[in-house]
Amino acid sequence: MMRRLLIVSLLLPGLATLAGCHLPGRPKPGDEVPRPEAVMSFDKLYAENCAGCHGVNGDNGAATNLANPEYEALVDDATLRDVIANGEKGTLMPGFGQNAGGSLTDAQVNAIVSGMRAKWAKGNALAGQNAPPYKSSGDGNEADGKRVYAMACARCHGATAQRPGSAGSILDGSFLALVNAQTIRTTVIAGRPDIGQPDWRGDVPGHPLTDGDINDVTAWLLSQTPANPGQPYPNNSTMSEKPGEAQPKAEVKQ
Q1: What's the farthest any 2 CA atoms get from each other in the chain?
Q2: How far apart are the first and last CA of the chain?
Q3: Domain at 207, CATH number
Q4: Which of 24, 35, 43, 191 counts the most CB atoms within 10 A of its CB?
C-alpha cells in the first residue's frame, strides 16, 4: 500500500505539468480548419473556384476578363449570381452553387459577387457610352453577320478558319463548340483589354457596333460551328476496311 502511494505521489507533479502543455498533434488555438461552408473570404473563394479559368487577378485567363471595369458595368448582380451558381449552358462554365451540384452556398456566391465589385468595378464605366445591352434584343441575320465579321473581325481573326489572323481564329470549330451566343456577345461588347481585344467601339474606327450588328455577327459565327467539332477530316467509316489495306487519305484544304 505504501509503495502505491509513493508511486502516485511521484507521478502527480508530472501529470500536472503535462496538463498545462500541448501534446504532440494537439491543435493550438487558431489552428482549427473552418468548415467549407463557413469560408467567406473573397480571396480564398475566388482562388479555389475561379482563378483557374479567369486568372489569378481576374485577367489573362482562358475565360472572361472579370477585372475589366466595362464587363463589371455590363453585367448586373443577379446575372453574376446566376452564372456563378448555375453555370452557363453551352460553355465550359459549370455551376458552383449547391443546387447545381457544386459546393458553394448562396452566401458564398454573394461573397464572390460582392468581392468582384469591390475589387474590379470602377463606378459605371459605361455611363454615357450608349453601350448595347447585355442581353440580345432579338435574333440576328446570318447573311448580315458575315458582312459584319468581314468589316469588324477578319482583320485580327482572319477571313477563314484555315487562315487565322494575328489574334487567333474565332472560326475554329473547336473554339465555337466551347462558346454560346451570350459569351460571344459579352466579349464583343466589353472586349478583352487584358489580351488587347477592343470593345464594341474599337472594332471599326469611328463606327461603334450596334446591337443589331452584334446580334448578326453572333448568329453568323455560331452558324459556322461544325457538326463534329474537333474532327477536321471527313468520316471514312463507310469505306471498306480490310486488314493490311491502306485507306485513301482525306484531302486537306489549304
Answers
A1: 105
A2: 101
A3: 1.10.760.10
A4: 191
Q: What is the pLDDT of residues 79-111, one digit of tens each?
A: 999 999 999 999 999 999 999 999 999 999 999
Q: Which residue has the cell 474532327?
A: 231
Q: Which residues pair with 192 in a beta bridge?
A: 197
Whether 164 and 173 have beta carbons less than 8 Å apart is answered as: no
Structural domain containing residue 62: 36-120
Residue 121: count of CB within 10 angstroms of its CB: 14
- Per-residue pLDDT of 155-187, as tens digits, reads 999 999 889 999 999 999 999 999 999 999 999
Three cell numbers written together for 207: 463606327
